[in-house]
Automatic annotation (TrEMBL):
<feature type="domain" description="IclR-ED">
    <location>
        <begin position="89"/>
        <end position="273"/>
    </location>
</feature>
<dbReference type="Pfam" id="PF01614">
    <property type="entry name" value="IclR_C"/>
</dbReference>
<feature type="domain" description="HTH iclR-type">
    <location>
        <begin position="26"/>
        <end position="88"/>
    </location>
</feature>
<dbReference type="Pfam" id="PF09339">
    <property type="entry name" value="HTH_IclR"/>
</dbReference>
<keyword id="KW-0804">Transcription</keyword>
<dbReference type="InterPro" id="IPR050707">
    <property type="entry name" value="HTH_MetabolicPath_Reg"/>
</dbReference>
<protein>
    <submittedName>
        <fullName>IclR family transcriptional regulator</fullName>
    </submittedName>
</protein>
<dbReference type="InterPro" id="IPR005471">
    <property type="entry name" value="Tscrpt_reg_IclR_N"/>
</dbReference>
<dbReference type="GO" id="GO:0003700">
    <property type="term" value="F:DNA-binding transcription factor activity"/>
</dbReference>
<dbReference type="InterPro" id="IPR036390">
    <property type="entry name" value="WH_DNA-bd_sf"/>
</dbReference>
<feature type="region of interest" description="Disordered">
    <location>
        <begin position="1"/>
        <end position="23"/>
    </location>
</feature>
<dbReference type="GO" id="GO:0045892">
    <property type="term" value="P:negative regulation of DNA-templated transcription"/>
</dbReference>
<dbReference type="InterPro" id="IPR036388">
    <property type="entry name" value="WH-like_DNA-bd_sf"/>
</dbReference>
<keyword id="KW-0805">Transcription regulation</keyword>
<dbReference type="InterPro" id="IPR014757">
    <property type="entry name" value="Tscrpt_reg_IclR_C"/>
</dbReference>
<dbReference type="InterPro" id="IPR029016">
    <property type="entry name" value="GAF-like_dom_sf"/>
</dbReference>
<dbReference type="InterPro" id="IPR011991">
    <property type="entry name" value="ArsR-like_HTH"/>
</dbReference>
Length: 276
C-alpha cells in the first residue's frame, strides 16, 4: 500500500477564534501583531494578564512585547491602572492606511453627493496624532474660501471633524493624546486649553450626536461633523460640512448633521465598519 498523505497541520485558534499560523517564521513578530489586533477590538485598556489569557501567550512574553510596543508608541501603559491600551503610533498606522487611497476613494463620491444635496462645502478627514488631515475636500460653488484642503493639517480639538473623532475614543486614549496643557494649541485664543475643558466639550458632542465648531478656525465660518467608525467601533474618519455662519442658522445645524449621519453610515458600510 502507498503511504497515506500526511495531514496538514491545523492552525491553533486564540480566544477570539482567530486562527494563528501553525509555524510562524517570526514568533515574536506574530505575537506582537496579535497583541495589537486584540487591543484594537477592545473599548479600553486592559491588564497584561488579561491579554496573556485571551491570546494564550506566556505572561513573560506578553510583558516583554508590551514594553517594546510601549517604547515605540504603539501601546500606552497606564501605571496607576496597571493596564495597557493602543498608543498614538497605532492610530498613525490606521491613518496611514487611510491616506493610501482606499478610504478617500470610497468616500469621495459620497462627499460629492453630499455637497450636491446641501449646497455647502464638505470634507472627509482622518485623525493623525493630535491633528486631523483632510483626505477629501469638495467645494460648493459660490461659497466662502476655506483654509482646509487635501493634505492640510489642523489641531483636532479645534475642528468639528476632530472633535467628532476624539469623542469616539476611550478616555485612556484621549489622555494619551492630550496628557497636559502643552498639548493644546489655540487660534486667536479660542478652543479648549485643558483636558477638563476638552472632556466637557466632548461630552456635549456625545449628547448631541454630532460635533460643531463656530469660528474657532476661521471667524464667521462654522462646521458640523459626524464620525465614521471602523469594524471595531473606532473612529476611522469624520465627515464634515463647512458654511458661513450668516447663511445657516444654528437651529438648522442638527438637520445638517442628520444628512451627514446618513453619509457616514454608508461609508462605514463600505469599509465594513460598525454602523451606529
Amino acid at each position: 500500500m502507498e503511504a497515506s498523505a500526511a495531514r496538514p497541520t491545523v492552525p491553533a485558534s486564540d480566544a477570539r477564534g482567530i486562527r494563528s499560523p501553525a509555524h510562524p517564521k517570526v514568533p515574536a513578530a506574530d505575537s506582537a501583531l496579535r497583541i495589537l489586533s486584540h487591543l484594537a477590538t477592545l473599548r479600553g485598556p486592559v491588564a497584561a494578564s488579561a491579554i496573556a489569557t485571551a491570546l494564550n501567550l506566556p505572561r513573560s512574553t506578553v510583558y516583554q512585547l508590551l514594553a517594546v510596543l510601549a517604547e515605540r508608541g504603539f501601546v500606552v501603559h497606564l501605571p496607576e491602572e496597571r493596564r495597557y491600551g493602543l498608543g498614538v503610533a497605532a492610530f498613525e498606522l490606521s491613518s496611514g492606511f487611510s491616506r493610501q487611497q482606499p478610504l478617500s476613494r470610497l468616500g469621495r463620491p459620497l462627499v460629492a453627493q453630499l455637497v450636491d444635496r446641501l449646497g455647502e462645502s464638505a470634507h472627509l478627514v482622518v485623525l493623525h496624532g493630535r491633528d486631523v488631515i483632510y483626505l477629501v475636500e469638495e467645494r460648493a460653488p459660490r461659497r466662502p474660501s476655506l483654509v482646509s484642503d487635501v493634505g492640510v493639517r489642523l489641531p483636532s480639538h479645534l475642528t468639528a471633524s476632530g472633535r467628532a473623532m476624539l469623542a469616539a475614543l476611550p478616555a485612556a486614549q484621549l489622555r494619551a493624546l492630550f496628557p497636559n496643557a502643552a498639548a493644546f494649541s489655540t487660534r486667536d485664543g479660542q478652543g479648549p486649553r485643558t483636558a477638563g475643558e476638552l472632556r466637557r466639550l466632548l461630552d456635549q458632542v456625545r449628547t448631541r450626536g454630532f460635533a460643531q465648531e463656530d469660528g474657532e478656525i476661521t471667524p464667521g465660518i462654522a462646521s458640523v461633523a459626524v464620525v465614521v467608525r471602523d469594524h471595531a467601533g473606532w473612529p476611522a474618519a469624520a465627515i464634515a460640512v463647512t458654511f458661513s455662519r450668516n447663511d445657516v442658522a444654528e437651529a438648522e445645524w442638527p438637520a445638517l448633521a442628520a444628512q451627514l449621519a446618513g453619509t457616514a453610515t454608508e461609508l462605514s458600510r463600505r469599509i465594513r465598519g460598525r454602523v451606529a
